[in-house]
Design a protein that fits this description.
The complex is a heterodimer of chains A (455) and B (311). With 455 residues, chain A is α/β, with parallel strands linked by helices. Chain A folds into 3 domains: 3-86, SRP54, nucleotide-binding domain (Four Helix Bundle (Hemerythrin (Met), subunit A), Up-down Bundle); 101-294, Rossmann fold (3-Layer(aba) Sandwich); 300-447, 434 Repressor (Amino-terminal Domain) (Orthogonal Bundle). Chain A has helices at residues 5-13, 24-40, 45-59, 70-86, 113-128, 144-155, 168-181, 199-212, 229-240, 257-266, 287-295, 300-310, 313-325, 330-342, 346-352, 360-366, 370-381, 385-389, 396-406, 410-433; strands spanning 101-106, 132-136, 158-159, 186-190, 216-222, 244-248, 270-274, 282-284. The longest helix of chain B has 17 residues, at 205-221. In chain B, 48% of the residues lie in helices and 14% in strands. In chain B, helix 1 (13-20) runs parallel beside helix 12 (299-307), helix 3 (39-50) runs antiparallel to helix 4 (56-70) and helix 5 (77-92) runs antiparallel to helix 12 (299-307). By secondary structure, chain B is of the alpha/beta class. Chain B has helices spanning 13-20, 22-32, 39-50, 56-70, 77-92, 120-133, 150-161, 174-187, 205-221, 240-252, 270-278, 299-307; strands at 35-36, 74-75, 108-113, 138-143, 164-166, 192-197, 228-234, 256-260, 282-286, 294-296. Chain B is elongated and about 65 Å long. At the A-B interface, helix 2, helix 6 and helix 9 of A face helix 7 and helix 10 of B. Bound molecules: guanosine-5'-diphosphate (2 copies) and magnesium ion (2 copies). One guanosine-5'-diphosphate (GDP) sits between chains A (107, 109-115, 193, 248-249, 251, 274-277, 281) and B (116-117, 147, 199, 201).
Chain lengths: 455, 311
């Protein structure tokens, strides 16, 4: 729905032909777009401001890798900063204490506490080899205790039997007592949803916490949340002290900026994320995934890194220069194919190019894949040096020889030649338009590997 | 307190919204007291609207409109607020339309859908309660056959509001249950049938297809059903609301919105952008967890409360 950041930055950096270090003016222009992108991803305004200030400072003067555009470089810097802020180190659950230790779930109404309680219980029994009991402290929402009981049956987890009329603090104490008697390790306390501005219920939850003395107080929050995430998380943390965050509904199509807001304002790690309604849909928080989702694009960063690693820079620049002069030969085309193959799986690569997801059909239709490229490269390699420089020499019998030599057909050879012709024409045109005029955002060497499909 | 005895946590619109807009109010006041309306002030204003989830585009549009009329003029805080509220109210007034039942249609079928945890079941209880009080006979269909104890939850609400609840069991086919419910409702001459559905994220195509199937099956009994399709939206949601409305609208031809949890500190500002973009009626707002915590959507009160003015 919203334009992705690459699209936004494209406009700014298309005009930019300069190489070398990022200049203050360019970075500031780019950051205006980054700001909008973050706000549209629901990152809270105050957090956006701090983020932009930090990242601007970091980006100015940064050297642009020669094989990527300045725009891609900025995105990588922004992305890396996002990952750092979201927490690149996975944070585990704390069980240290005399068993049974308590883990308490808190949050707004409907955020996913009860579901997460059962998912987490199942995960702890399976992975930590600990015995778990769940207890529902939700005496308000109709059938909330039954919900947890049923989830207990589904997952095979021990669930405390509700007693009619028992209050939350008493339930917590009873759960811990019975768990101790039964020799269990962990008690998961599922509390009722509450508004952070509801004084009465916030007092209740502090009383529960005092009674249970949990090793973890997990704030369960919805990835769909907007600007209010920052107020909500701050209030919960200030009132009861949160030890970690669980981000639910990551399986939705929200950009999830709330994650950054909550992390920034509480300083608490996001430990887990809910990725569905089923009981196994709970994963360790993945900062990279959320950062990419916040920026709303494929993994440009991976592209930048791969491009930096693999493309032989001088070779690429040499080809680019030739292209611009219109002196592009079949030899150069073969060299390009080699570069592309070195970068790895072509389809995977396409997925990393921002905007390419939208062109999936076209890419499929153009039949760009590793095999095609390898075949096309083989065809060119079966030509003599002279033929590669002067394709006009290629008459029928030479084409048949090349087809046999490369294990392809004459049609395949014709296709490569046609493609070459189209490419050199495009190059000439692009040369007139000036450097980068043709395909902004694509590193040299990334041009039309399987034909001219990306028009 | 006994189990399941949901205490009505009283919270009026003004209570809730006034509290939630406290920050916005103090912001505007700080910005405009004894000042000329300059660019800085406008920027600050735009930011305040953004923090209410209006979205960048709508916030900027409202601020520009303010600039066009007031730039460089002396303005008191209240004048600025009043102007802004009027602008917002002008956008919201056309969509502030209560849900009007057609008494000629029996049973009048209301389909309720939305993402997980948005407040569908509670909203159904509120609607049922309101219509029961108006003397209508109301039946409920427990169409959430997925979530644990969703059926029991609706049954408890049904008992409190005084409605028959048609229910199967968890794991049943929701469309089949709805088919039975709509038949029962016609046989028993119920005035209204409200159909609860499982929460679903709009990007899950299979779940959206299931919703479409529910409608197809409904229409085997009554070709004109559902007579209203309500999307229940949580006020804490941010810009994802756009995608929610867009996709649910496509799947079930949403006829109106109900915005819940406005008793919290979220201001639900995205409603303003939605009104401009989709023009869907906003029938009511949820302001608490009890059966009586629902109010009509009042464009003027909402707008004025949003900028921190009393009605
Ligand atoms: N798609 C999705 N739904 C979830 C996730 N976590 C919880 N839910 C759903 O959200 C709704 C509310 O969950 P619940 O646990 O009852 O929330 P609580 O009120 O905070 O206890 C239910 O429909 C759950 O199935 C998640 O990670 N992804
Ligand atoms: N504070 C507040 N809570 C609400 C409101 N509407 C629903 N809830 C709560 O939100 C949670 C989810 O509601 P429910 O009706 O089960 O959502 P559903 O999953 O969409 O059916 C429950 O704890 C409700 O009590 C509201 O207007 N205000
Ligand atoms: Mg719960
Ligand atoms: Mg429900």
């Amino acid at each position: 729905m919203f334009e992705d950041l690459t699209g936004r930055l494209g406009g700014i950096f298309d005009k930019l032909t300069r190489r070398g270090a990022l200049k203050a003016g360019d970075v500031e222009d780019a950051m205006r777009e980054v700001r909008v992108a973050l706000l549209e991803a629901d990152v809270a305004l105050s957090v956006v401001k701090d983020f932009i200030a930090d990242v601007t400072e970091e980006a100015i003067g940064e050297k642009v890798l020669a094989s990527v555009t300045p725009g891609q470089m900025v995105i990588k810097i922004v992305h890396d900063h996002l990952v750092t802020m979201l927490g690149s180190e996975p944070a585990g659950i704390n069980f240290t204490g005399v068993p049974p230790v308590a883990i308490m779930m808190v949050g707004l109404q409907g955020s996913g506490k009860t579901t997460t309680t059962a998912k987490l219980g199942a995960r702890i029994e399976k992975r930590e080899n600990k015995k778990v009991m769940m207890a529902s402290l939700d005496v308000y929402r109709p059938a909330a205790q039954q919900q947890l009981l049923q989830l207990g049956e589904q997952t095979g987890l021990r669930t405390l039997e509700p007693v009619l009329g028992e209050l939350p603090v008493a339930i917590a104490k009873r759960a811990l007592k019975i768990a101790a008697l039964e020799g269990l390790d962990v008690v998961l306390l599922d509390t009722a949803g509450r508004l952070h501005i509801d004084n009465e219920l916030m007092t209740e939850v502090t009383q529960i916490k005092d009674a249970a003395n949990p090793t973890e107080t997990l704030l369960v929050a919805d990835a769909l949340t907007g600007q209010d995430a920052v107020t909500m998380a701050r209030d919960f943390n200030d009132r009861i002290g949160v030890s970690g965050i669980v981000l639910t509904r990551v399986d939705g199509d929200a950009r999830g900026g709330a994650a950054l807001s909550m992390r920034a304002v509480t300083g608490r790690p996001i430990k887990l994320m809910g990725t569905g309604e089923k009981m196994d849909a709970l994963e360790v928080f993945d900062a990279g995934r959320i950062a990419s989702s916040i920026l709303g694009q494929g993994d440009v960063v991976g592209l930048v890194e791969k491009a930096a690693e693999v493309i032989d820079q001088q070779e690429a620049e040499k080809i680019a220069a030739k292209m611009m002069k219109g002196k592009f030969t079949l030899e150069d085309m073969a060299e390009q194919f080699k570069q592309i193959r070195k970068m790895g799986d072509v389809k995977g690569l396409m997925g990393m190019i921002p905007g390419a997801a939208k062109m999936k059909d076209k890419i499929a239709a153009a039949n760009i894949d590793d095999k095609t490229i390898a075949r096309q490269e083989a065809i060119i390699r079966s030509m003599t040096m002279e033929e590669r420089q002067k394709p006009k020499l290629l008459n029928g019998s030479r084409r048949r020889r090349i087809a046999t030599g490369s294990g392809t057909s004459v049609q395949d050879v014709n296709r490569v030649l046609k493609q070459f012709k189209q490419m050199s024409q495009m190059m000439k045109k692009a040369g007139k338009m000036g450097k980068r005029g043709m395909m902004p955002g694509m590193p040299p060497g990334m041009m039309t590997p399987g034909g001219p499909p990306m028009r | 307190m006994t189990k399941d005895a949901a205490p009505d946590r009283k919270a009026g619109l003004l209570h809730g919204l006034a509290r939630s807009s406290a920050k916005l109010t103090s912001g505007i006041t700080g910005l405009f007291t004894k000042r000329k309306l300059d660019r800085d002030a406008l920027d600050g204003l735009e930011e305040l609207l953004i923090t209410s989830d209006l979205g960048v585009a709508t916030a900027s549009q409202l601020t520009q409109s303010l600039a066009a009329q007031r730039l460089d003029k002396e303005a008191t805080a209240d004048e600025v607020k009043g102007f802004l509220a009027d602008e917002i109210a002008a956008i919201l007034t056309p969509v502030a339309r209560p849900l009007v039942l057609d008494p000629a249609i029996k049973p009048y079928v209301v389909l309720v859908c939305g993402v997980n945890g948005s407040g569908k079941t509670t909203t159904i209880a509120k609607l049922a309660n309101q219509w029961r009080r108006a003397g209508k006979s109301v039946m409920l269909a427990a169409g959430d056959t997925f979530r644990a104890a969703a059926i029991e939850q609706l049954q408890i609400w049904g008992a409190r509001a005084g409605c028959t609840v048609i229910a199967g069991k968890t794991g049943d086919d929701a469309a089949g249950l709805v088919f039975d419910a709509i038949k029962r409702a016609s046989e028993e001459h119920a005035d209204i049938l409200i159909v609860d559905t499982a929460g679903r994220l709009q990007n899950k195509q299979d779940l959206m297809a299931e919703l479409e199937k529910i409608i197809r099956v409904m229409r085997k009994v009554d070709a004109t059903a559902p007579h209203s399709s309500l999307l229940v939206m949580d006020a804490t949601v941010g810009q994802n609301a756009h995608s929610q409305v867009e996709i649910f609208k496509e799947a079930v031809d949403v006829s109106g919105l109900i915005v819940t949890k406005l008793d919290g500190s979220a201001r639900g500002g995205v409603v303003v952008a939605l009104a401009e973009k989709f023009g869907l009626p906003v029938h009511a707002i949820g302001v608490g967890e009890g059966m009586n915590d629902m109010q009509p959507f009042d464009a003027r009160a909402f707008s004025r409360a949003l900028v921190g003015l009393k009605s």
